[in-house]
Amino acid sequence: MIDTHCHLADEVFEVDLDAVVGRARAAGLTSTICILAAGDQAETRRAERVRQLWPEAAFAVGVHPHQAHQCAGQAGRAESWIRQGVSEGRVCAVGEIGLDYHYDFSPRDVQQTVFAEQLHCARAMHLPVVIHTREADQDAFAMLVTEGAGVAGVFHCFTGGIARARRALDLGFHLSLAGIVTFPKAIELHEVAAFVPEDRLLIETDSPFLAPVPYRGKRNEPAWVVNVADRLATLRGVPRSAVLARTTENALQLFGAQAFARVDTPRASML
Ligand code: NI
User: Fold this and answer.
1) 207-222: buried (b, 16+ CB within 10 Å) or exposed (e) per residue?
2) By the 8 A CB rule, do 227 and 212 touch?
3) Residue 267 lies in a domain
4) Domain contains 144
5) How far does residue 7's CA lie from ligand 1's centre (Å)?
6) Distance between Cα 51 and ligand 1 center (Å)
7) In CATH, what number is assigned to the domain containing residue 157?
8) Domain range enclosing 209
9) How far does residue 172's CA lie from ligand 1's centre (Å)?
10) 147: left (phi over 0), alpha (psi -120 to 50) or beta
11) Position 265 in a domain
């Protein structure tokens, strides 16, 4: 079982990271993908501890659309951060990257430039991408076609209905479902959960955000990906073990099995 998207290097886990990782392993998780904000040195330092406590953990690094403004007018900054992360650590994906027009923390043209740059970078480095897109579907899908041709990846914390799912699947992308699928009112997403082909399905928590039922409102953690898997099993009419086996296999295929291999030798600097 792999939680394919969490933010374990976030400062909210600093106080009890060892307990959080312990509970994840006790719940049966073999690994996770810890998402890092490119260029964030504090988070990068905390990632070192994630790696020590959980040697099987993999990492993804990217400039989130919220932070795109940090790269405004500095062509290549996002790319150089990513290349540095890849060269020094066990980064298996570029992400999370995309467009967020809900918060608009960065100007839209800047978000687009930085997103395009990172899609090109992922293609050049043969890495999959982890997509975050919110209220920006028209531009995001168009850019995945024009700038991201040939790039594989996942729509993380997928929300929306069948039509949107179909668009992402038609581009060859995986869909990753998070705690929202456990919410009783997420009817559209329940339909998607039953609809996604089994070879395109991934599970995640997006910890510390969006805790699943029955933990809603609490700080989320990777162990609770089990609750996402349980809900998916019910919605798809299959045993939980089938969901876990298939989503794990899909993660190994998309991100590369070597990304989750145990690494015991700590490096001086990971990212
Ligand atoms: Ni996230």
Assistant:
1) bbbbbbbebeeeebbb
2) yes
3) no
4) yes
5) 6
6) 18
7) 3.20.20.140
8) 2-260
9) 21
10) alpha
11) no
CA distance 22 to 257: 22
Q: What is the dihedral of CA 54, 55, 56, 61, to 10 degrees?
A: 80
Task: Copy the structure tokens of residue 216.
Answer: 């809603």
Cα(97) to centroid(ligand 1), Å: 10
CA Rg value for the chain:
17
Whether residue 270 is contained in a domain is answered as no
CA of 40 to the centre of ligand 1 (A): 15
Residue 22, SS3?
helix
Tell me, in angstroms, the distance from the centre of ligand 1 to residue 266's CA.
25
Q: What is the pLDDT of residues 210-266, one digit of tens each?
A: 999 999 999 999 999 999 999 999 999 999 999 999 999 999 999 999 899 887 655
**pTM reported for the whole predicted model:** 0.95
Count up the domains in the chain and report the number.
Answer: 1
- Edge to edge, the sheet with strand 2-6 lists 2-6, 31-37, 58-62, 91-100, 129-134, 153-155, 174-177, 201-203
